[in-house]
Specification:
eight-stranded antiparallel β-barrel; 2 domains; eight-stranded antiparallel sheet; single chain; alpha+beta; Lipocalin; 505 residues; 22% strand; Beta-lactamase
Length: 505
């Protein structure tokens, strides 16, 4: 009961704060923001970026910086970027349109509309509603590897959900879950009779005036300028050697757009679902539902920047992270996808928004730009958000590196695998993640999924280090040798993979 009362009290506080109409947007200093952005790009080694700051009626700032690639074209307000997970609010808007039409309720069990959706816990199958999908409160752990390692079709992901064990009871914790937003996209399709992004094109983007927004990269026309993703590793910018388009993310994050269009989208949100032509696309009630807090969030389930902003509360709406900052409610969301980043932030009470798009992996200066624009402090009292955010993430990286050095020091030296490397090779299967292949490549091994090749190096005995350097990912894989001397399985990502019997005669 106390937990319920605490949540109700939290919602009251949020609503109370949001009820204040903030001060008018102060005189905007575009020159200062240019200098701020250029400094941040230098700190983070970002090749290209676009930034927009808008009110519901005016464009205060809109421009591109840098280039589409190190040797690419100049970025302008029409250059296309992947907006990644900021797609989720658009999908939510589409679902709210269907709510307005009476085609569904946010409290409908999802299985009512997608009957093939089943979970390991039958009670979850019965209880999980549409609101739970959009608020990341399903209790299910991340299953990102399905899309980003395996390019697994959604129907297969849905089938495998039956063997995924929940990490928490439903509606008790914010756990970011991309697959569930792919399911939300499917829900939009089932009830509209259109592909989710075709529905959004017709019913949302075009009425708003967003003519430079596409549901997938494959739909971008020839001649339209778009950025190239970049990583910064070992002091140099590199372009990934694989085709990692956002299309694998589907409704969880596959949209590409320009800063021009994203500025229009931000204005639409600030107007509460009304276009610049005064056409209401989403009801006031539905828009209020989008921005209501639906799940409280712990600091550990939020962004590291809470260390700097020190909010009194944190929550998640329908596709929006939420917190207080300087006595006001800020709704925002990031997007990250293999060399591309985005962020959108709204101060709805003051009628102000910022959008940032960039083409360098984890260029966290996006957070610095968000808080720079949302900071109402005087110039004299203003914090150096660029430096503070950079120092925060640098310290976290240094701490991670220090822990890794400690692991290397504790490593058991001078051991060898109990079997020849060739005996570890083969196809291994896990009911949740799917099939992977271990191959011998010269003197080392490689773990192969449908999309990614992971380098493997010997660590100690039958444990190997699995790396994907572009993502700075390190994970250990330990083989289990059967009594008959065969490598029958291994542990990886906290799961057991069993060797499949060879069909060779």
């Amino acid at each position: 009961m106390n937990n319920i009362l605490n949540k109700l009290y939290g919602v009251f506080v949020f609503s109370f704060l949001a009820s204040f109409s903030g001060p008018a947007v102060a005189d905007f200093d575009g020159d200062s923001l240019v200098a701020f952005t250029e400094r941040g790009m230098a700190l983070w080694h970002v090749p290209g970026m676009s930034v927009a700051v808008v009110t519901q009626d005016d464009i205060l700032f809109q421009r591109g910086f840098g280039r589409t690639a190190v040797d690419g074209q100049v970025v302008d307000e029409h250059t296309l970027f992947a907006i990644a997970s900021t797609t989720k609010a658009m999908v939510t808007a589409g679902i709210l349109m269907l709510v307005d039409e009476g085609k569904l309720s946010l409290d409908d069990p999802v299985s009512r509309h997608i009957p093939e959706l089943h979970f390991a816990n039958p009670l979850l199958t019965e209880q999980l509603n549409v609101r739970d999908l959009l608020a990341h409160r399903t209790g299910l752990p991340s299953t990102d590897y399905w899309s980003f390692f395996q390019a697994m079709p959604l129907d297969e992901q849905i089938r495998r959900l039956q063997v995924v064990e929940p990490a928490a009871p439903v509606r008790t914790r914010l756990i970011y879950q991309n697959t569930m937003f792919e399911v939300a996209g499917l829900l939009l399709e089932r009830l509209s009779g259109q592909r989710w992004h075709h529905f959004l094109t017709e019913r949302l983007w075009r009425p708003i005036g967003m003519l430079e927004t596409y549901g997938t990269r494959a739909e971008i026309g020839e001649g339209q300028v778009h950025v190239t993703p970049h990583f910064y590793r070992d002091g140099a910018l590199t372009v990934p050697a694989w085709d990692f388009s956002a299309d694998y993310a589907d409704a969880a994050g596959s949209v590409w757009s320009s800063i021009h269009d994203m500025g229009l989208w931000a204005q639409f949100l600030l107007r509460g679902g009304v276009t610049s032509n005064a056409e209401r696309l989403i009801s006031e009630t539905a828009m209020q539902e989008m921005f209501e807090p639906h799940q409280l969030a712990s600091a550990g389930d939020f962004y590291p920047t809470v260390e700097l902003t020190q909010p009194n509360w944190r929550s998640y709406g329908l596709a929006w992270f939420q917190q207080d900052f300087q006595g006001k409610k800020i709704d925002f969301h990031t997007g990250s996808l293999s060399g591309l980043v985005a962020i959108i932030g709204l101060d709805r009470a003051a009628g102000k928004a910022i959008v940032v798009l960039g083409n360098r992996d984890h260029a966290e200066m996006r957070h610095a730009l968000l808080w720079e624009v949302m900071d109402d402090g005087s110039k004299e009292a203003r914090r150096d958000w660029n430096q503070e955010v950079f120092d925060l993430y640098t310290r976290q990286a240094d701490e991670a590196a220090g822990k890794w050095r400690e692991m290397e020091q504790d490593r058991l030296q001078g051991t060898k695998p109990s079997l020849p490397l060739a005996d570890f090779t083969g196809t291994y299967q896990n009911d949740v993640i799917g099939d992977v292949v271990i191959e011998l490549t010269g003197r080392d091994m490689t773990l192969k999924t449908s999309l990614v090749d992971f380098a493997m190096s010997h660590w100690h005995v039958n444990t190997f280090l699995v790396e994907f350097k572009a993502w700075e990912m390190r994970e250990f894989l330990s083989f289990n040798v059967d009594p008959d001397g065969m490598a029958g399985s291994f542990q990886f990502f906290g799961k057991t993979f069993n060797r499949l019997e060879s069909t060779d005669n």
